[in-house]
Amino acid sequence: MYTAILVAHLAIAATLIGLVLIQHGKGADAGAAFGSGASATVFGSRGSTSFLSKLTALFAAGFFATSMVLAMLAGTYRSQHSVIDSDGGANQPEAQEQSPPSPSQTTPAAPPGPVPDTAPAPAPPPPSSP
User: Fold this and answer.
1) pLDDT digit string (tens) for 64-115?
2) Which candidate in 45, 54, 63, 121 could, as Cys together with 38 as Cys, close a disulfide (CB 3.0–4.6 Å)?
3) What is the dihedral of CA 57, 59, 61, 66, to 10 degrees?
4) Residue 22 near residue 52 (C-beta atoms within 8 A)
5) CA separation, residue 63 to residues 3, 20, 43, 58, 60 (Å)
6) Which residues, at least 6 apart from 43, have a Cβ–Cβ distance to it below 8 Å?
7) Whole-angstrom distance, CA of residue 16 vs CA of residue 62
8) Using CA of residue 21, residue 23, residue 25, residue 26, what is the dihedral sign?
9) Angle 78-81-84 (CA atoms, 0-180°, nearest 5)?
10) Distance separating alpha carbons of residues 122 and 119, to the nearest angstrom
């Protein structure tokens, strides 16, 4: 159900973008910039809403509704497993089938810290007494 709503949401979003892009802007006429036409009104002449405007409003309401449903589903949806903890079964270690190594088979751990490349510097000579 979540996937179906998500696919519908994406389809509505793409359609809404297309509808907004193909509509004719209110101030797109060159004459509107210079006051021709209905310059007495504050926002220019605006007749009844067109079919594209009504369709855009309908798709905007659908986008809002699917957004709310997806938000509610995302809040209640819980996965049964962690993506981090599982690797999909591709890299199952074979060490689980074998017995653990005995202490004689283990190698000693390396000493902590960096290993010096050169011999240590000689100690300074003791102070001489006069």
Assistant:
1) 999 999 999 987 766 666 667 766 555 555 545 566 666 665 666 666 666 6
2) 45
3) -170
4) yes
5) 15, 14, 28, 9, 5
6) 26
7) 10
8) negative
9) 115
10) 9
Longest dimension (CA), the chain: 113
- pLDDT per residue as tens digits for the range 15-46: 999 999 998 776 666 555 565 555 545 555 55
CA angle (19 as vertex; 14, 22 as ends), nearest 5: 125
Q: Rounded to 10 degrees, what is the CA torsion of 64, 69, 72, 75?
A: -100
Q: Which helix (H) or strand (E) holds 33?
A: helix 30-33
Cα–Cα distance measured from residue 92 to residue 97, given in angstroms and rounded to the nearest whole number: 10
Q: How many CB atoms lie within 10 A of CB 56?
A: 19
Are 5 and 66 contacting, i.e. CB atoms less than 8 angstroms apart? Answer: yes
Distance of alpha carbon 23 from alpha carbon 84, whole angstroms: 46
Q: How far is C-alpha 98 from the geometric centre of its chain's CA atoms?
A: 41
